[in-house]
């Protein structure tokens, strides 16, 4: 419906309803205010009555019943704003830069000093042969030895007395008269220390020692066609050369074992069997005895070598001071 002047009936009704609600709300508010004031008065009275120090007041039933029943308010509740939810702000973790590895310096290892080579002990030579070949007599020969009737001896023992160019003298060697250019051999392992030409003969004298620091000496005298050199390490059994000159039909060579004493500046010689390899000594002693026996038989059974005087086959002494 369209109105020209004034209110329509519907609008008037709504207005009256609003006025009625306002009047009713005001009335309720006044009643509640009075009621609350009465309650506060009662509470103050109670507090006054119980403040005495002697006795506690028991609450009266009337007081308990005087609690008013709270009327429902027609006011619309004030909306409560929702509590703010706080999301924790993430603290950024600083990114640690990757460390660039620095090259480690190369450590040069300290060289381990070499283990010093121990000084060789002053050991005696160990003989493994007697320098020339020994064998039973057959067809004029006994190994390197050539049997000639014109000779008195082919083997001269250690410590034998002989007539030299300057008169009688003792030999402190094994001296052999052998066939021409008979081979001679190294008797013990060692190092060649010297090779010297003999002044009174067209041959050489060779010195071999067990090691460079040894005071023991093995002398090979009257050697030709020398097959070793100074400083060379040699082994027993190696050919040293050939026997030196002696006569038109025979050669000769000598073997001497000598010990030098630095403390006393003196020397002595020993019988070759004093420093012989124990595993071979008996074999070579038998060879010497066989040569002596064969030679004496060749010479008609005459005793030429007084072997009953030997301390070892071919030795009148074990050692002798020079």
UniProtKB/TrEMBL annotation:
Gene3D superfamilies: Glucose Permease (Domain IIA) (2.70.70.10). The chain crosses the membrane at residues 12-31. Keywords: Membrane, Transmembrane, Transmembrane helix. It holds the Pfam family Peptidase_M23. Residues 176-249 form the M23ase beta-sheet core domain. Residues 45-68, 76-99 have a biased composition (Low complexity). Residues 100-118 have a biased composition (Pro residues). Residues 41-118 are annotated as: Disordered. It comes from candidate division WWE3 bacterium. This is M23 family metallopeptidase. InterPro entries: Dup_hybrid_motif (IPR011055), M23ase_b-sheet_dom (IPR016047). Signal peptide: none annotated. The keyword tRNA-binding does not apply.
